[in-house]
Amino acid sequence: MDPVRNPYAPGAGQRPPELAGRGRELDVFDVVLERIARGRPERSLMLTGLRGVGKTVLLNTLRSQAINHLWGTGKIEARPDQSLRRPIAAALHMAVRELAPRHRAPDRIDGFLGVLKAFAQRTTPSGRGGAAPKLRDRWQPGIDVPAASGRADSGDIEIDLVELLTDAAAVATDVGTGVAVFIDEMQDLGPEDVSALCAACHELSQLGAPLIVVGAGLPHLPAVLSAAKSYSERLFRYQRIDRLDRIAADQALCAPAEREEVEYEPKALDLLYEKSGGYPYFVQAYGKATWDHAPRSPIAAADVRVAAPEAEAELAVGFFGSRFERATPAEREYMRAMASLSLVEGEESGRDDMDAAVPTAEIARALGRKPASLSPARDALIKKGLIYSGERGTVAFTVPHFGRYLRTQPA
Question: Are 303 and 332 in contact (CB under 8 A)?
Fold first, then answer.
């Protein structure tokens, strides 16, 4: 097969040639946009799922939908060591710039930009955590109007964010549209920022203001939001993004191939689904390797068998290995114990991916340690985004098939 014509695209946040299996999520968001445009109440949206299921791709696609509805949009990626103040100011600056050409009162836009500038420049004297504010947190936005006074500049992020988002929604109301802020890796926001964001969304929903937040994060994102504000369970619409079913996985492979006049034999598709588990990133990785190794159409199961080791080697380095290397020896020991125990848990529960959640008490017992002594390793792995705690007293890998990868690695 001609490698230049290879249609598959495994990559971080890179849209696949066929966005299969996500029609329901796209339809739901279209309804949300239309309802808000008509003054109907709607909740902000939270996408949750493991790494590699396509949350970032879906987030970008939803943003494109909002743009097509003439909404103002901005997107940020949360970082555990960065305050929300600077990135959300930049996102709203972009969103309002998209709305400004359709606004009939330039003074209203300038008024909002003055509030935005005051919000962006405001920091507490000592910064977050008692340390001096970093240069990136002293960002000077490229806004020509003077900073406003007395609005969104108190230094309390919860008060300021409510006022800022309310003013942004007012600008959108003026032009008969809305504002959508998209936040990737949302579980990495600090507790104060999560609390402020929940409070702002709560206020906006009560006002019926045309501004929504669309977040994406790991499976424990609902728990992060709930810990900040108890009402967050009712405040957001949660959508779990999972692996593709067999029909969608076949579509993701066959539709791009058909556009290149290439077909798959049924047994080849059987084997590709078995190898990929239906996870979108893996579907693309195995599809790309198989295309490059197949001599002709139709692609056969034998072609998949020949190509699979190359796909697995690439995943071992770029998808699994890069994450494994970030862990300390103590953290690796913890994850190896998780991997062994998740195999047992998976067999007992009938899970076919063998990456089931594991009780932390069992990990401590397997390592011959007290649970409290393993807390630092557990907390560090959660902070690094390698594991998560979906339920109290259990942990699971954030990366699909990571347990299987660890079980193949030498101790």
Answer: no
- Rg of the chain (C-alpha set): 23
> Using CA atoms, how far apart are residues 163 and 87, in angstroms rounded to an integer?
16
What distance lies between CA 232 and its chain's CA centroid? 18
pLDDT, mean of residues 200-220: 93
CA 284/CA 215 separation, integer angstroms = 24
Q: Position 304: which residue type?
A: V
Give the angle subtended at the CA of 185 by the CAs of 190 and 280, to the nearest 5°: 160
| pTM confidence score | 0.88
Compute the residue count for the chain. 411
C-alpha pair distances (Å), 397 with each of 25, 98, 336, 382 = 25, 39, 11, 9
pLDDT tens digits along 119-176: 988 864 444 444 444 544 455 556 778 777 889 889 999 999 999 999 999 999 999 9
CA angle 303–307–312, rounded 5-degree value: 150
- On whether the CB atoms of residues 87 and 189 are closer than 8 A, the answer is no
Greatest alpha-carbon span in the chain: 70
Q: Are the CB atoms for 26 and 73 separated by under 8 Å?
A: no
